[in-house]
Structures are given as structure tokens and as C-alpha cells.
# Entry
Amino acid sequence: MTTYSVEIEVPDEHDIEGVDPGGSVTVEVDESEYVLAAARDQGVWLPAFCQQGWCTTCAAEVLDGDLDHSDAKRYYAVDAQAGFALTCVATPRSDLRLRACAEIAMKEHREANGLQPTP
Ligand code: FES
# Structure
């Protein structure tokens, strides 16, 4: 079993339990775990709603590294190309650097690409 280090940055304007606004935290995530669940288990309360890879509430920007989104209900190739992750259903395939709280940016990206932004 492989465990990866996932550094999560939080933008200034967001308040997440377990990370100061504008700060970052590193959590350890096994290759079989979803990033969101592992982070929450370690006290980092990232935003989420459906937890099925559908609503984009949990979206993050991928600053570095690779993730697997095989379990997502809705995740497009262009989402990966644009550097978005759905942390509720993504498992790490390398060490990662993520910037949390990217829901609005991901919805704008989907609208710009003519894709369903939300259910
Ligand atoms: S919480 Fe809905 S897509 Fe992740």
C-alpha cells in the first residue's frame, strides 16, 4: 500500500476547520482513500455536499501531482486538463499540492466549455 503526502492550500477568504485562512496543511492519503475523507479524518474539514463526484462543492485546483477520478459521477477530460479535482472521489497517484475551495472556478470552467455545471 502506498501513502502520499497531500499539501492543501486554503485561499485567504475561506474559513476551513483545521487550516488557517491563507494557510496550508499537509495530510497523508493512502492510494485507496479519497482525499476528502482522509483530510477530514485528519481534522481538515474541506467543503463537500454530494460526496459522489457530482455537485463540484468539493472542487480543488491541482497545483502539482496526479489523481484518479474513476469513481466520479461526473468528471470530464477537460476538467483534468484544466487542473480541477473533485476531492470527494479522487484518490492520489502521487504526492499532491491542491488549492481548496475552487467550486466557483470549476463551475465557470464547465460553463465556458458548454458542460453541465451542476446536476
Ligand atoms: S462533494 Fe459533490 S462533487 Fe464532491
Q: What stands out?
A: Residues 48-51, 53-58, 86, 88 surround FE2/S2 (inorganic) cluster (CB under 6 Å). The chain is about 20% helix and 25% strand.
